[in-house]
Amino acid sequence: MTQFAIEARNIVKTFRDGEVRALDGVSLNVPVGQVFGLLGPNGSGKTTMVRILSTILAADSGEAVVAGHDVTAAADAVRRSIGLAGQYATVDENLTGFENLRMIGRLNHLTKAQASATAHELLERFGLTDAGQRPAKTYSGGMRRRLDLAAALVAQPPVLFLDEPTTGLDPQSRQDLWVIIEELVASGVTVLLTTQYLEEADRLASQLVVLDHGRIIAEGTPADLKANLGTTVVAVTFASHHDATSNLHLIRDLTKNEPNIDGATVELTVNSGPQVAADVIRRLDQANIAVVGLALREPSLDDVFLNLTGHKAEEVVA
C-alpha cells in the first residue's frame, strides 16, 4: 500500500486555447493521514488542481492517482473515495440541515435508516443538532460551512478536498472549523487544503506547496519555509511612509532579502535580530533620523510568501 493518498505528476492545464496556463507541470505527493496545504493567491492554480484531482476537470497532460485510483481511468472509484467542500456552501438552502445530509446519504446509496442515522451523527459532530430541523437558509455563514463539510463526510471518504473552506468566515468561525479539521485528521482522514490564509496553513498543514502563476515556487514544512528566510524580522516604524522610503538606503544592506515596506514600517528579515536591531538604531541615530518604533518577531508564512513572489498572498493575480 502506498504511503501517499494523492500522487500527481507533471499536471498541466490551460484555458483559452492555451493562452492561460493555469497549471504548469505541478507534481504533488500527499501523505496519508495529514493535512497537505496548497498555498497561493487567487489565480495561482489551487482550485484548478483540486478540480482535476476530484475528476471535475481533465488535465491536458500529466497523471494523478487519488486513494489508489487513477483520476482518468477510474474516475468513478475516485469519486467514491473523496469528499469535496468548496469555497461556497453547496447545500440546498430550502432543505433543513437534516434533510440535506439525509438526501446526500441516499445519493450515496445508503439505506433510509443508514442515511437518517448518519445525518443525525454528523449534525451532532458538527454542533448543528439544535439547528438540524431549520432550513439551511437560516444558518449563519459558519453554520453553512460546517454543514457543507458534514455533507462531504456523509460517505466517510478517506480523502477530503477543502478548497478555501474558511473564505469569508469571521475569526471565531474559522477557528471552530480548524478544530474540526484537526479532529478529522486525527481520525485518519487525509486532507488536501487550499488556502490564501497564511495563518491557516501554518496552523493546519504538515507539508506545504506554494503555487504562483501555476508553478510550484516552494515546498516543505511551514517551519522549513520560514527557516530558509531567516530567524527574525526587524520591523522599523518611521513617522511616515515617505520617511520609510527615503531612509531605506541607510539600512537596506543589513539583510540579504528584499526589505518590505508596509506603510511607515520597514521590515528586514535577518538571521541575527538583536545585532541588526542595534545596527539599525546606530545608523539612524548617526543620520539624525527618529523612529516611532522598533520590534523583533519570528518570520511568518506571510513573510515567506512576500519574499518568494514579491506580493502578498491575498492579492489577486490576473
Give an overview in words:
The model has no long low-confidence stretch (mean pLDDT 88). Helices cover 35% and strands 26% of the residues. The chain is α/β, with parallel strands linked by helices. A hairpin with a 4-residue loop joins strand 1 and strand 2. The protein has eleven helices and 14 strands. Helix 3 packs across helix 4 and helix 8 packs across helix 11. It has two domains: 222 residues, P-loop containing nucleotide triphosphate hydrolases (Rossmann fold, 3-Layer(aba) Sandwich); 68 residues, 2-Layer Sandwich (Alpha-Beta Plaits), CATH 3.30.70. The strands form three sheets. A six-stranded mixed beta sheet has the order 6-7-8-3-9-10, with helices on both faces. Strands 2-1-4-5 form a four-stranded antiparallel beta sheet, covered by helices on one side. Strands 12-13-11-14 form a four-stranded antiparallel beta sheet, with helices on both faces.
